[in-house]
Amino acid sequence: MDGNIALDGSINWNELEKETPRIESGVEGLDEALKGGLPADNIILLTGTPGSGKTTIALQFLMHSARKKVPSIYFTLEESTRDLIKQFIKFDPGMKDVLMSGMLKIVEVPLIDYESFKENLGAEIDAIGAQRVVIDSISYLQMFFVDIVSIRKGIIELSALLKSKNVFGIFIGEIPYGEDKLSTYGVEEFATDGVISVHMMEKQDAFIRALRVVKMRGTDHMTKFIPMEITEKGVVIYPKSQLFSEMQ
Predict the structure, then answer these.
(1) Distance (Å, whole) CA 135 – CA 120
(2) Which of 6, 38, 66, 223 is buried deepest, with most CB atoms within 10 A?
């Protein structure tokens, strides 16, 4: 199929004109910032500096989905299943029951080659009929490719794979410390439908966490930096609050 839209009746205009369905994020305050939730047909880049709360947000989302009986998978290319559970279960002791139910699965992905990586993802998704997927982290694609163009192409192919299976996906990315960019390679944000960034922002002698919806196809959204905390129950964001009292 080429990139042209035919006007011969092959396009389902009623379908295109429908409002995009939304998915609850499971993160307090985030759906309000997104004016109704995550667009169901998007692939989203969740990016931030190390320790900013990306993994916690992603697991809160999958736990929320799994509790609603939506099969979900967390693909980890870096941390072990044990470390992820140990890190998150302190926020949500019910994680054990959710994992035992089979509605949420954590998969450690062997990094062999890119084609094997895609086949592994597809097979795991098909095995449980997953509808929600997190890949942590997309930055590890550098192991498969030698240039930026190939990395972008690889991310687009992963997005297409998930969309072909009607899966909503979150790709976790990294913002290098001290750099004014949204991702490791500077292409990840252009190969996804939405970008949510989380930050550790310094004021005087303290760090304050903040979240920003950089872009999100299919919905209006807040664009400001929104105050965020990691509480004993996980990440909470505060859409009605101002960061640093308007940064003064």
Answers:
(1) 12
(2) 38
